[in-house]
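Fold Annotation — chain and its backbone

Fields — amino acid sequence, structure tokens

___
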Amino acid sequence: MAIKFLQNVSLEGGELQNVVLHPLSSDPSGLGAGDQGRIFYNSTSDVVKYWNGSAFVTLSSTVGDITAVTAGDGLTGGGSSGDVTLNVVGGDGITANANDIAITAAQTTITSILNTSLVLGRDNDNKVTFATDNQITFRVSGNDGVIFKASGEIEATKFDGALEGNADTATALATARAINGVDFDGTAAITVTAAAGTLTGSTLNSGVTASSLTSVGTIATGVWNGTAIASAYLDADTAHLSGTQTFTGAKTFTGTLALTGTGRITGIDTVSASTDAANKAYVDGKTFDDVSNANLLTALANLESASGTADENIVIGTDSGDTIVITGNLQVLGTTTTLDTQNLTVEDNNIVLSSGNTTSAAIDGAGITLEGGTGDDVTWMWSASSTRFEAKVGSSLTRIAASDFYGNLTGNSTTATTATVATNVTAVANNSNNETVYLTFVDGATGQQGIETDTGLNYNPSTGVLTTTSVTGNLTGNVTGNTSGSSGSCTGNASTATRLETAREINGISFNGSANIDTGHAANIGDGSNTSIAVTHNLGSRDVVCQVYDNSSPYDTLYVAHERTDTNNVTFKFRSAPTTDQYRVVIQRVM
């Protein structure tokens, strides 16, 4: 494996002895101007070659000089030794100059230029091409704007100026035309409304259904929905007439004839037919009940069932959705009031039960009962013998839940958040739970005291560690954690400490344990453009060892020129710019 030097090697005037040139079976490829001067031995041709920046030049004496140069077509001159000159032969419209061949702009002798790939123009964005058979394309500013086709058609994105002849299609009329007074230029659809004077013929199409006639003249004759208009055809859904209506002749109405407001039928007394007169006489002689307020109150007071039998239900109204409103007070004198309703809304703020009580105390058993259906009822009631309210399910007392109770409570409590005075508490062993528990203490040595805790004093049963901010007094055994400001004495070793009492040097860097330190630095380098790359290591010394290795397999060590720019930086210099992260540098402080 060859050792790679990524910078020039200077022998400072020393000899390079026993050198063997790099043997290759063929010329290397991919060289550029930056490789000028590279030398190698071509083992196939048995020659030594060097790169002059653009081509390989042979140094071996085994290859002779050019033996002859022969002028080809269009050339004159040549020779077989020494310096040889070739001259370009001119022609009609062609001039051979010292450094170029000029073609006369005004050509008069060229009669034909034919080529399937012929291109004429100023540049690639402005040219005439003949690449497509039977088609000529004119390109201007990078766009193929005009195309001449074999069919005689000219295809263009736009024409500027007047054109003669008719276009096959157009997006708009140059001048909009009016159709029944509506301008139309062809760019969008329009709706044309026919003027009344333009309608001809005697019949409207049966599909005319969406129109609304707001005013028509006199319709002398015609048919409405199959019935002559003159017969005043009205069906049950059409009889919605307002104002005074006059009907002449015989009219037939089916269904109910309803008059609203103060409407009435007049002129009926002028009839002469015997049947109509009989109808009038019946109406005139009819006696109607008086429904005045006084008569209505009397009727309600005597209200009985339809059969007149006592103790039967009397139903008011037939629609369960109706609402009966009583504007005054409602007094029920019966012994039982039943409400067959799902929801009961009461506006009163206070509901009085046992209002007829004449004793000196609340009635025993008074309260509210919730119907239990097939199970036990739930009752909230007053117990006069126990002088208390009781909640019962059936005949047994039940529980009451509330967020708070105000006042004294008697009896035993299953649980309680606070006991005023407790002489005993029940303790449960907790030896292994991984949790933080807090030690309790009191303010005084004797007497009734409130139990308190301090978050700074806690214990973990799983680890067995007691945690507090400080301890005063003597400690025996190992101490875990930091100790400071101890006014007593400590025996044993501390497992950890925040810093060393005396700082120690590691590779020349002071270390007391209070923070991390670095004695070395490593980084990837290379960006594809820079040949001089500065690496900041912040080790604070020029006494560093630097190494560079390839960042890909087999990760071989490289030799690179580098300068210790200052105590925190090293600059690495390459002959050619390394690619992105191509190499890795390692810098280690030794003193």
Remarks:
- Residues 526 and 580 are 5 Å apart (CA to CA).
- Helices lie at 274-284, 293-301.
- The first strand starts at residue 4 and ends at 5.
- Confidence is low (pLDDT under 50) at residues 229-239.
